[in-house]
Amino acid sequence: MFYIHDIAAISPVHELFASSPENTNIISGNKLLAVEPVYAGIPPTVLRRMGKAVRMSVGAALHIIQKHPQLDGVIIGTANGGMEDSIKFMNQIVQYEEGLLTPGNFVQSTPNGLASQIAFMVKNKNYNNTHVHRGLSFENALLDVVMLLSEQPSASYLLGGADEISSYNYNIDWLAGWYKKEEVSAERLFNSSTNGTIAGEGAAMFLVNNTRTSATAKFTSLFTSHSTDEAEIQKKLEHFLEKHLPKGEQLDLVLSGENGDRRLLPFYEAMEATVGENAGLLRFKHLCGEYPTASSFALWLSCNILQTQTIPAVLEKRKARSTTFRNLLVYNSFQGHQHSFMLISAVE
Amino acid sequence: MGIISPIGASVEQNLMALRAGTCGISKGNFIQSKYSELLPFGEVKFSNESLEETLNAHEPGVTRTSLLTLHAFKDAVEDAGFSAGIIRSPDTAFIGADTVGGMCLTDEMYKDANLLSHGSAYLASYDFASVNMYIQSRFHLQGIVNTINTACSSSANAIMYGARLIQQGYATRAIVGGSDSLSKFTVNGFNSLNILSNEICKPFDEQRKGLNLGEGAAFLVLEKEEDVGSKKVYAELSGFCNKNDAYHPSSLSEVGEGPYLAMSGALKAASLSPSQIDFINAHGTGTENNDAVESAALLRVFEKVPAFASTKSNIGHTLGASGAIEAVYSVLNIVHQEMYPALHFQSPIPASSLIPNLSYERRKVQHVLSNSFGFGGNCTSLVFSKT
User: Fold this and answer.
1) Same domain, A85 and A201
2) DSSP H or E stretch at residue A160
3) Phi, psi at residue A77, to the nearest 5°?
4) Are B149 and A81 within 8 A, CB to CB?
5) Whether A116 and A239 share a structural domain
6) Strands (E), chain B
7) B360 contact A CB<8A
8) Residue A265 sits in which domain range?
9) Which domains does chain B have, with CATH numbers?
């Protein structure tokens, strides 16, 4: 449906595809924090005001925009945007009893700040949109781009997904039971048999258009669903693969959003039963942690795998039978009520 | 269409109030804030308890934003005559927008976020998506569901996204709109920016002092022309355009580049020349910056600026709901071939000399342009036309 060209991510993972691929950031208190680069392209006065989600997004975006300044739009998925700033502002409201407050945190808190700050940095006046549909924020941004590229076939867009760990937001989701009560190391995440997972964060950006030449990967199709019934999701996956996997081709790799939460395992097991034994089975949440736009990290990872035709061992749950990888499925579930399938293919 | 606003809990009540030039802005009765007595608000005139009762919405963790959404959503699907089966059909999309979500519960969220509680009933209700997830789960929606937040242009973008889903074949019908409720969070946020007026707002007036925050929700049902058959049709969504001002996080550029591009783009998409627009539902927040910039942009787009008004003089700025509420009002202009009076206006801004429409008038309204501009430079314009 479109081609992905340049990609950039800021995540808890150090150079995954470089010489020491298994080097991930240290986990602390069940939070997997993103490793931030030196943000060379952002003026220090501007950088100081930015919250982490904005910083990571602008940083990753600039990496792409420097090489591709002509963009026809910026489309971002983020469930919460500048969450830390939101709650900092809320704390001020309560602590100063609605006294005289400075607007900095309020202005930084709006989720459309990610896409709009990218636009300001490079004076891009084109289409600009922000999707905030929790665990399907990035997927809806993706669908927006699919439609844009059908409306404007010669255009190029910046597509991205980003969310930050805010200590406050972590508290809210911890109280709701979404994070593990006991500390767990990233390596042991998938052996855990308790409820909850570990928190993560990151920003992943993609330059996408309809040009096949020198593309990194091809994005073939997307499906999203709201359901709490694994049998229903399984049926939808069967239908999705029948409809979108090219005739005579097989699924070579599956990237599973498994996150160590016992309650979500039935969804992932149903998916594994559907895709069969031939496809290699990969997992990624021990590298990036769980966050509503983690599927954008999965897409970044997929592009790297398909382009380099290599699989970092740290991802493998079951080895692929094939040694060349053409079709890759990402299945992700957020909190067991939002689900997405993404089919991505290699470009020869 | 379905709507709940400070001037009515139905399309009919809103219509009567617009015709009568009713202003729904007053002291706050329900908002929990020290400013409730000090500043004017466009408040929906029902308590949460009464909304819960009339809507039979007793699920735990339901917020005011969700209640307003449910009210307008229910009215919209009833007006369209949709059965429960059609509403949950996989080819029915639901696109909602909001900028407050469950943050209307500022104090509960403060306690939960700082671990000063054992977890309130609202843990899953604070984010923006919670509002639409509530509708999704209550009506068992199976089609595409999305939440958009581009600040004050959010629901204009929700309308645009829904229309595009239909154009591209991802949905046969789309229920689109937005909602927001008054919250301590936004009141203090806008107050810290010094853009709240302590008087009732006066859009496009020389002496304007800022905006009044409001609340509400509106949803519209969109279908393709060829699928309409003998069903009731109010108007055509004939054009839309989304652009960015790319200037400043919380104010618009003096020349109004974003507004200019959004308006001209929407006209182009509708294949209309500026002179064919009969009426403009302006963004017109009543702030120094917006009204000056929007006026400048109007003068750039239109050789002769058509009749215009900002219905924020009736209901205040309903943020994530405003694009959808104003879409409903634009459609009413077309359905009833009439224009409603702008309120509280005294003297024009000297630089632009633009005077909004000040009286109720029956006249030909073929095409209406509706503007929504937001923080982050997010500007979207929609065009509605008589069929």
Assistant:
1) yes
2) strand A156-163
3) -110, 125
4) yes
5) no
6) 2-4, 25-27, 40-42, 92-97, 145-148, 173-180, 216-223, 236-244, 279-281, 307-309, 338-339, 361-362, 367-373, 378-385
7) no
8) 217-345
9) 2-385 (3.40.47.10)
Chain A residue numbers with beta carbons less than 8 Å from the beta carbon of B118 are 175
Residue A311: give its domain's CATH number.
Answer: 3.40.47.10
Size of chain B, expressed as the number of residues it contains: 387
Global ipTM? 0.97
Q: What is the tally of structural domains in chain A?
A: 2
* Cβ–Cβ below 8 Å for B377 and A119: yes
* Rounded CA separation B374/B188 (Å): 18
Strand, coil or helix: B380 = strand
Mutate to test the interface with A, among B38, B146, B245, B260 (most CBs of A within 10 A): B146
Answer yes or no: do A205 and A260 share one domain: no
What does the alpha-carbon distance between residue A307 and residue A216 come to, in Å, rounded to a whole number? Answer: 6
Structure tokens at A202: 């990151």
Residues A103 and A168 occupy one common structural domain:
yes
DSSP string, A178-231: -B-SS---GGGGGG--SS-B-B--EEEEEEEES--TT-SEEEEEEEEEE-S-HH
| A127, A131, A172 member nearest B148 (Cβ) | A131
* Token representation of residue B282: 């302006």
Quickly tell me which residue has 């998938």 as its tokens: A190
Closest CA to B316 of B74, B32, B75, B27: B27
CB A25 within 8 A of CB A33: yes
Residue A231: is it exposed, middle or buried by C-beta count within 10 angstroms (0-12/13-18/19+)?
A: exposed
Pair type for strands A253-256 and A327-334: parallel
* pLDDT tens for the 348 residues of chain A, in order: 999 999 999 999 866 555 444 555 556 679 999 989 889 889 999 999 999 999 999 999 999 999 999 999 999 999 999 988 988 999 999 999 999 899 999 988 899 999 999 999 999 999 999 999 999 999 999 999 999 999 999 999 999 999 999 988 899 999 999 999 999 988 899 999 999 999 999 999 999 999 999 999 999 999 999 999 999 999 999 999 999 999 999 999 999 999 999 999 999 999 999 998 999 999 999 999 999 999 999 999 999 999 999 999 889 999 999 999 999 999 999 999 999 999 999 998
